Amino acid sequence: MATIKSFEEIISWQKAREVCKAMGRLIDDKRFKNNYRLIDQIEGSSGSMMDNIAEGFERGTKGEFIQFLGYAKGSCGELRSQLIRAFDRNYINQNEFQNIKQELLNISGLLQNMIGYLQKSNIAGTRKKV
Questions:
Q1: Cβ neighbours of residue 80 under 8 Å, at least 6 residues apart?
Q2: Residues above pLDDT 90, as percent of the chain
Q3: CB 76: neighbour CB atoms within 10 A?
Q4: CATH number, domain with residue 51
Q5: Nearest alpha carbon to residue 76 among 12, 6, 10
Q6: What's the number of domains the chain is made of?
Q7: Which of 7, 15, 42, 106 is most buried, judged by most C-beta within 10 A?
Q8: Prediction pTM value
Q9: How many Å apart are CA 60 and CA 18, to the nearest integer?
């Protein structure tokens, strides 16, 4: 298995970035009208997915990486809930809702798989020796 050298190589980070950009496009298209609270929450949770993966990786220990992957997974769930709210308010259509929801479920699964892998591995991180 190849060693990941930067957080930008992590598939879940790449997919989170795509979802963040997709949500940003919807917001920039004025789809959320003047619901600034929901916009702020969506901006926060979508960015938090990416940021927590990056921060956990950069901290350089397995334990902290696992912890921050858990935070990213939580942000993913938070964004799914906000997506449902946006759909219920007719800010997005059924197709947009289903596509983004499926991507978020995929990201959540990738994060859980990485957490499980790290928990079982002997990898200590860049700040610790095995």
A1: 101, 104, 105
A2: 85
A3: 28
A4: 1.20.1440.60
A5: 12
A6: 1
A7: 42
A8: 0.90
A9: 25
